[in-house]
Amino acid sequence: METKTVVVPNIGCNGCVNSIKTEVSEIPGVVKVDGVVDAKTVTVQWQDPATWAAIEAKMREIDYAPQS
Q: Into how many domains does the chain fold?
């Protein structure tokens, strides 16, 4: 199982975090998605068949691109 925490500059409220949780959780293999509004961070925990590339692509698609 892998875990990654990233900064997402577009996060402005709990609604943003909930959108990210809903969308990213739909990816097969994603186990957990948490976000902190004040820190503008998202932590994703996943296993196969999910990949970080797929998670990042989904976040970009919904306009919550992680900071490089």
A: 1
Domain at 14, CATH number: 3.30.70.100
Which residues of the chain fall below pLDDT 70?
none
Q: For residue 24, is it within any domain?
A: yes
Query: With a threshold of 0.90, does the pTM exceed it?
Result: yes
Q: Which domain holds residue 53?
A: 2-61
- SS3 assignment for 12-61: CCHHHHHHHHHHHHCCCCEEEEEEECCCCEEEEEECCCCCHHHHHHHHHH
